[in-house]
Amino acid sequence: MDYASQQRLETVQFVWSYWLMLLFDILKDPIGFYTFDDVCRITGLSKKTIYRYMDKGHFPRPVSGRPRKTLWWIADVHEWIRRKLQEKVA
């Protein structure tokens, strides 16, 4: 295997190990809430897409939070992520 191929392989292995580490860290399910910005950052979805998914029943609904503050249970968001990952694997 030449040097360039070895570098690509090491990069792919690093990326996969990083994503697995991140995934296991995210899915520890602490008790608490995510803000709308947190949910967008974690899922990579825009606010508009999240609203569309909620309207179709494909994303968990937020809980009642402070006025003008949209909050989701952390466990609900993590469960949605788990389901999406299982759909991709299956």
Provide an overview of this structure:
This protein has two domains: 1-29; 31-90, Multidrug-efflux Transporter Regulator, Chain: A, Domain 2. It is mainly alpha-helical. The two termini are 33 Å apart. A two-stranded antiparallel ribbon has the order 1-2. The protein is elongated and about 60 Å long. The model has no long low-confidence stretch (mean pLDDT 83). Helices cover 64% and strands 7% of the residues.
In summary, what is this structure?
This protein is mostly helical and 90 residues long. It has 2 domains: 1-29; 31-90, Multidrug-efflux Transporter Regulator, Chain: A, Domain 2.
Give the key terms.
Multidrug-efflux Transporter Regulator, Chain: A, Domain 2, elongated, 90 residues, 2 domains, 64% helix, mainly alpha, 7% strand
CATH level 1 name of the largest domain: Mainly Alpha
Please give the count of helices.
4
Tell me, rounded to a whole number, the average pLDDT.
83
User: What general form does the structure show?
Assistant: elongated
CATH fold type of the largest domain:
Multidrug-efflux Transporter Regulator, Chain: A, Domain 2
Strand content: 5-15%
Class per helix and strand makeup = mainly alpha
**N-to-C series of helices and strands:** HEHHEH
* Helix coverage percent: 55-70%
